[in-house]
Amino acid sequence: MSVRALWIISHEKGENVSIRFSRRFSTVEHRAKRLAGSSYVAVPEESTVLQLLLTELGLSNSDKSYVALRDDCLHRQRSPALELRVDGPGKGTLWPVLAISQGPLILACLSLVDVPPEPRPPLANLLSVSQGLTFLEGLQTFLLGSGSKPDGEGLVSRLAMLPSVLLQVCPLGTPLDVPVLGAPATPTMPTPAGNQKQPAWKTGLHRGRAVVNVALIETVRSMQYGNYSRQDLWDVFGTVTCKCEVEGVLPNVTVTLTLPPNGSPLQDILVHPCVTSLDSSILTASSVDNYDGSAFSGPYKFPFSPPLEPFRLCSYTSQVPVPPILGSYQLKEEENQLRVLVTLKLHESVKNSFEYCEAHLPFFNRDQMGVVDMKVSSGQLDVSKEKNLLVWTLGQKFPKSREVTMEGRITFSGPAPGPTDPLCTELTAYLKLYFKVPDMTLSGCCVDQHSVQVYSSAKPRIVTSRELQSKEYFIWNSTGTAPVSSGQVML
């Protein structure tokens, strides 16, 4: 595995986006040119790479609601192996450009693919992709430390050290301690965990008490219309991530997921390749099939030999009877003002303890906001007249009634036009919810701390957590038109 180019980009909020560090490896580029032949595409200038990468990640032109290269329905983002389409004399496609983002940094590299570019090989067959991502994660740990945002001086000093670090861990563009060229992508027999060698780009072996961390995160999406002619949609997607920090030999581990007695079986389960054995009935439940009540309902046991880096153990979907927050949104236009009525009700099965909960109400294709006369039964309302946006901060709890309302009028008589959106014209409008509920999942799925088995004499500390968070949680104005999907919300 070799790297043609490496970029480290700063994109901290409120600051100019810029490339903080870049490195090109001419020997690897010479090999890429020889392998590609007439289809070779050179790496463009840094400014061009920056613009193409930000566009592909959806971070460019944030003030524009539609950018064809970013938002066209025919364009499919293939994260984390991105395509950068280069125009000009050396036009073509750079692939695979690997990118990861955390805190204020984006780390990206262009891996060398030692096979013909056409037909394009599947990502699962390319060692350079998984090794490139592991390399970026190691550099990310080196730059950011254990947290996601170090102090500015610490980041500057680490960036200054990076050239000498790369000479040690990635000489001539080839990271050390990776499988030799031609090694099979999957070994014929499971490799014992204790034989795994610490890569040179890792910041060091774990010291101190062993820790096994298991985090379960469920994400809920919803489209609610408040209209009997349109069916409300919602879906739940869950992931279980693991991180094993053990000094010396990595142990074998078994993680068990359990459901409440009345819980719906997990569906569409996908597991990491490190899982050593699995009951085949776990994988049979699918969301595209009609549920007949006979699906496996747990407990779900996942024995595995953990890799060195944090990883996603498994993912799943779940069918739940109701969304966590039911909403109603009504707009009525009266001359040059809108009458707004919003009701949000927290379902009784959801824990009334939020890390945060906000409702955003944008108003597009109108003049700038003038007078805003709104009342809320709970929380705090912030008004951004420049953005034509209301932000309703509900805080950490709903009231005892579990129901909140917002009502009032808004006039649009500002000196300049507000933001535009090709979809939200006339009374087509939405409310978007952002929330996170710690120590809860909508499906009821959990990882019991005592059910995690670690086959090691080190007696590691077991840390488990779970949380529910929203993603693309929309409540549409019931008095206007709204986009309607004929199927499930796809995650």
Automatic annotation (TrEMBL):
Q: Which Gene3D superfamilies match?
A: Mu homology domain, subdomain B (2.60.40.1170)
Q: Name one Pfam family in it.
A: Adap_comp_sub
Tell me where it mainly resides. cytoplasm
Membrane topology is: Peripheral membrane protein
Q: Which CDD domains match?
A: AP_MuD_MHD
Give the subcellular location: Cytoplasm, Cytosol; Late endosome membrane; Lysosome membrane
Q: Which UniProt keywords apply?
A: Cytoplasm, Endosome, Lysosome, Membrane, Protein transport, Transport
Q: Which GO terms describe its biological process?
A: endosomal transport; protein transport
Q: Does the keyword Ribosomal protein apply?
A: no
Record PANTHER family:
AP-5 COMPLEX SUBUNIT MU-1
The similarity annotation says: Belongs to the adaptor complexes medium subunit family.
Q: What protein does this entry describe?
A: AP-5 complex subunit mu-1
Upper taxonomic lineage? Eukaryota, Metazoa, Chordata, Craniata, Vertebrata
